[in-house]
Amino acid sequence: MSSTNLPSANANATTVDATSVGTWAHIRSRVGAYVSLTKPRIIELLLVTTLPTMILAQQGFPSIWLVMATLIGGTLAAGSANTLNCYFDRDIDVIMHRTKRRPLVTGEVSPQAAMLFGLTLGAVSTVWLGLFVNWVSSALAVGAILFYVVGYTLILKRRTTQNIVWGGIAGCMPVLIGWSAVTGSLAWAPVALFGVIFFWTPPHYWPLAMRFRRDYEAAGVPMLPVTADDRRVARDIVLHSIAMVACSLAVVPLAPTGWFYAISATLLGVWFLGSAIVMWRKTHRGDRRLGEMKIFHWSITYLSALFVALAFDPFLF
Fold first, then answer.
1. 250 in the Ramachandran plot: left (φ > 0), alpha (ψ -120 to 50) or beta?
2. Whose CA is closest to 261, among 178, 192, 172, 184?
3. Nearest alpha-carbon partner for 276 in 286, 262, 290
């Protein structure tokens, strides 16, 4: 009798296992889709600027709880802004090759669900930062969300070639949030760091827009590389890079930094500015191999290395 029922029992067990595996795979896929809406890679870069600023403000390592609370709140705020950006940009994301795999384009997440998710993240980040960090940091995070979603996504992005220039203000806010999390106020040092990221954003983003120029043109987004020739774009990248390096060096007299940051900022600035000038010269020679994606990736390396130097400096000074 038992031997007769054995095949049936095994079949039922196999069915249950298959159902369980399928359920977990579906859950992982759904969670992954929502996480993708928050643009984790962008959030990583924002957090890279937050923690070193906190260390600079503290002149040492802040309490673990304050660091964790600030980074969690900042992650939620950035995730909110990025999710709402995906919601409002879903009509052009379907056109652009670079964004056509986003969850709202593929249908993995509905527009209504994305909107609710984005607003929920924003609300939670506001309350979290207010209760566990301070209300100055909370207000700055709200300002960053509003500027990115309303200022950049809804107003600037499709109307002006300076979209990414002014839209980049939202990406500068983490240094102000990090500083205020420690001190409860602002000062000129985080303003200089704000300037670094503000002037860094176009040299970081325009090379990417050069690479995907046809995408932006097809979507009707007037990024500078769409409306201007390579020579003009490269020139503006050089000019913004000069201002970026100047702001990075302005941190030295404005904040209690030492020789390590000063030397690092100088060497990194010379390296990146030199790379931008090389690309600019190539445009004058008519060279089509501008290496724009190298500039894009190097810009990430530059910003990361600069803020790592900023984080190490208080322990060496």
1. alpha
2. 192
3. 290
Of residues 249, 307, 308, 309, the one with CA closest to residue 273: 249
Helices (H), the chain: 2-37, 40-58, 64-88, 90-93, 103-106, 111-132, 135-146, 163-167, 169-183, 188-211, 213-219, 224-227, 230-254, 259-285, 292-316
Report yes or no: 279 and 291 within 8 Å, Cβ to Cβ.
yes
Q: What is the pLDDT of residue 1?
A: 46
Whether residue 8 is predicted with pLDDT greater than 80 in this model: the reply is no
One-letter amino acid at 264 equals S
CA distances from 198 to 173, 180, 256 (A): 10, 18, 22
Q: What is the DSSP letter of 97?
A: G
Q: Which fold has domain 40-316?
A: Farnesyl Diphosphate Synthase (1.10.600)
Please write down the HEC assignment for all residues of 24-78: HHHHHHHHHHHHHHCCHHHHHHHHHHHHHHHHHHHCCCCCHHHHHHHHHHHHHHH
Domain ranges of the chain: 40-316
pLDDT, position 16: 54
C-alpha closest to that of 137 among 197, 69, 56, 52: 69
pLDDT tens-digit map of 34-67 = 999 999 988 888 889 999 999 999 999 999 999 9
Burial class (CB in 10 A: 0-12, 13-18, 19+), 6: exposed
Question: What is the number of alpha carbons within 13 Å of residue 283 lying toward its C-beta?
Answer: 21
pTM of the entire predicted model = 0.90
**Torsion angle of alpha carbons 225, 228, 232, 238, nearest 10°?**
-30
Query: What is the tens place of the pLDDT at every residue in 236-285?
Result: 999 999 999 999 999 999 998 999 999 999 999 999 999 999 999 999 88
Burial grade of 286 (CB within 10 A; 0-12, 13-18, 19 or more): exposed
Residue with token string 């930062």: 129
